[in-house]
Design goal:
- The complex is a heterodimer.
- Chain A contains 13 helices and 12 strands.
- Chain A is α+β, with helices and mostly antiparallel strands.
- In chain A, the strands form 2 sheets. Chain A has a 6-stranded mixed β-barrel with strand order 4-5-10-7-9-8. Chain A has a two-stranded antiparallel ribbon with strand order 2-3.
- Helix content of chain B is about 35%, strand content about 25%.
- Chain B has a 6-stranded mixed beta sheet. In chain B, strands 2-1-4-5 form a 4-stranded antiparallel beta sheet, covered by helices on one side.
- In chain B, strand 9 (about 215-220) and strand 10 form a beta hairpin.
- The longest helix of chain B is centred in the C-terminal third of the chain and has 18 residues, at about 175-195.
- Classes of the chains: A alpha+beta, B alpha/beta.
- Chains A and B meet through helix 1, helix 10, helix 11 and helix 13 of A and helix 2 and helix 3 of B.
Chain lengths: ~400, ~230
């Protein structure tokens, strides 16, 4: 018999038992639908995290202070106060480096007239907006001279501008008070919106890093050094040369660990995608379990079906169905069941994904390879769990099968 | 002309628990083309085993069985299956129709396994349903038909590959008297008008009375083989 004829026989047998066939499929349908929905949400989230990471800046390399051990307790990264503006100036001279900016961040209250707002004051160099690919909306950014003189001037993010000047008047030329010191607003930044981690990137005030060190922290060190490599091919070499340079400057000899950490966005993106891979593996595990349960359901029903249809099998054998033909028919039945179940599951999962996306506005994406893998896995479940019942059917003796009550 | 069935020294024994059952102890019998023979006997006489061997559902332990002139006692299961599907027709006591399947599709079933192309099946099946007088029920499902009508579908199914022999195992066992008579008249008509060879297995004398020849079994042996002078129908 041809494959087509076998599938026909299997389909007509399944249609004869519509309700049972649908219930048998349900396990597979739910399993596949659950996989599709969770994968769609997971992949969507991963894609949007990656997008927001790359939106942080072009070819960005971040140098953070390392961990220090103080009386036995180790602080986390950033705990050490090891980076200075001079480190930044030295890095800027390295080949392949396009720009460097130190950052000094302090969270504090800002006052303008009757309004006040708690925000992050970040002291930076004029190169910062270039490194972050951040444009000025109005006014201007401070220049090198103003940094050198630690001028009391500020550039506002859109959120801060809106909170301090709610009437919509231009903040430029106005005075704001940061920790008791008056700063003159000289510009505003364009809105960036939320970061991939849900932070409002526009809730910020930029001031010269020198001013931040003098007026806000009183320290000679900075929080981070942001470095922009000339192009993406130079990210890795620049990361290495920055590491070597800082080891020399900080006099670090091999048994000692670095008192700083150099990370680039590729590493961060890799971490994010590793997290995503772990998620996908977990999902695959959940998928395998649910499909296994669905498969056991199929095997159960197929065994019942073989017993119930013993006389039918005897009749088919007596009118010319070989044992192998019976085996193929029952195997085809379970494969058709599980594959159709898988296909319905994909459709149900796609509908569920659209529903989730509409309700929660989460980014979603259904990767084609997961759709194909789900359907292929369903078919395999059908073969695996259908083989034993099918063999039972094919092993029947036609005389006994015909007599079966 | 070659006889349809030639059986010589046929023995069949099988294990039933500890015991060995001698179901057939040396049967000799020949069935010519166009015969209508009833095989009679009480239960345990070996008549069912004989039918299974003749119907190639089972193989004999000893002896020779020539079907349409060729030796069939040592065929493999698949070879027997192919002959059953193409050269033999079966009618059972319990009809054994596929449920929730139309009469037409039930009749088509042996052709599916014999590899008859799909577009040729329908007209053949319809012709056989017409032959047994229920072409108007082609679209009906078994549960919409009386027992007699269902048995007619089963008879049409047995005819569909133009077999050289039809084996009917207690075909009236589940039917009332009127339907039984109708089914037996149908067999008589098929035998007389279409020349179809029929072997009927029954333990009821009034059913056997329709046959032209009556073979009686007892304890695995043929005890009588007579021409039925006073044929019913």
């Amino acid at each position: 018999m041809t494959v087509k004829a076998t599938l026909r026989l299997a389909l007509s047998a399944l249609i004869r038992n519509k309700a049972r066939s649908l219930l048998t499929m349900l396990g597979i349908v739910i399993g596949v639908a659950a996989v599709i929905v969770t994968v769609a949400i997971g992949v969507g989230a991963r894609t949007s995290v990656q997008q927001s990471i790359s939106s942080l800046g072009s070819n960005l390399i971040v140098v953070q202070p390392g961990s220090v051990t103080q009386t036995g307790a180790r602080t986390g990264f950033g705990g050490a106060s090891s980076l200075t503006p001079d480190d930044g100036l030295a890095i800027a001279k390295l080949p392949g480096v396009a720009a460097v900016s130190p950052t000094v961040s302090v969270r504090t209250q800002v006052v303008a007239g009757d309004n006040n707002w708690q925000t992050t004051i970040t002291g930076v160099a004029p190169t910062y907006t270039f490194i972050r690919s951040w444009a000025i909306a109005s006014g201007r950014l401070f220049n090198e001279n103003e940094v050198a003189s630690a001028a009391k001037i500020a550039v506002l993010g859109q959120t801060v501008a809106g909170q301090l000047f709610p009437d919509g008047s231009s903040p430029i030329g106005q005075t704001i008070i940061i920790k008791g010191a008056p700063f003159t607003v000289i510009g505003t930044l364009v809105a960036l919106g939320q970061s991939g981690l849900g932070q409002d990137q526009d809730d910020i005030v930029l001031i010269p890093y020198t001013s931040a060190m003098e007026r806000l922290t009183g320290l000679s060190t900075v929080n981070t050094l942001m470095v922009s490599a000339g192009d993406s091919a130079q990210i890795d070499p620049v990361t290495q040369s920055v590491t070597q340079l800082l080891e020399t400057r900080h006099r670090i000899v091999p048994p000692q660990t670095d008192d700083f950490q150099v990370r680039n966005l590729q590493a961060i993106a890799q971490t994010a995608s590793q997290t995503g891979t772990v998620m996908e593996l977990l999902l695959a595990g959940v998928a395998a379990v649910s499909l296994l349960v669905g498969g056991i359901g199929i095997m159960n029903i197929m065994l019942v079906s073989v017993t119930e249809r013993t006389r039918e099998i005897g009749l088919r054998m007596s009118v010319g169905a070989r044992a192998a033909t019976i085996l193929r028919q029952f195997l085809a039945e379970s494969i058709v069941l599980s594959t159709i179940g898988g296909l319905i599951g994909v459709v149900a999962g796609a509908i569920g994904t659209v529903a989730v996306a509409l309700l929660t506005h989460w980014p979603t994406a259904i990767p084609l390879q997961w759709v194909l893998a789900s359907v292929a896995f369903s078919a395999m479940v059908g073969i695996f769990f259908g083989y034993y019942p099918a063999r039972q059917a094919a092993a029947l003796n036609p005389i006994e099968a015909l007599r079966f009550e | 002309m070659t006889p349809v069935v030639e059986v010589a020294g046929l023995r069949k024994e099988y294990a039933m628990g500890e015991d060995r059952v001698h179901a057939l102890r040396g049967v000799d019998l020949t069935l010519e083309r166009g015969e209508f023979v009833a095989v009679m006997g009480p239960s345990g006489s070996g008549k069912s085993t004989f039918m299974h061997v003749v119907g190639l559902l089972d193989s004999p332990s000893e002896g020779s069985y020539r079907f349409e002139g060729s030796e069939a006692s040592h065929l493999s299961a698949d070879e027997r299956t192919d002959i059953r599907g193409r050269r033999l027709g079966f009618v059972f006591q319990a009809y054994n129709l596929l449920p929730r399947t139309s009469a037409l599709e039930n009749v088509e079933l042996p052709m599916v396994y014999a590899g008859v192309p799909e577009n040729e099946r329908r007209p053949i099946a319809l012709a056989k349903l017409d032959m047994v007088g229920i072409a108007h029920l082609a679209a009906h499902h078994p549960n919409q038909m009386s027992g007699g009508q269902q048995q007619r579908v089963a008879i049409a199914r047995s005819l569909v590959n133009d077999p050289s022999l039809i084996l009917a195992d207690e075909p009236t066992g589940a039917l009332d008297t009127k339907s039984s008579q109708e089914v037996m008249r149908l067999f008589t008509r098929l035998n007389r008008e279409a020349g179809i060879t029929v072997m009927l297995v029954t333990h009821e004398a009034d059913v056997a009375a329709y046959a032209r020849r009556i073979v009686s079994f007892r304890d695995g042996l043929v005890t009588s083989d007579v021409v039925n002078e006073r044929r019913a129908a």
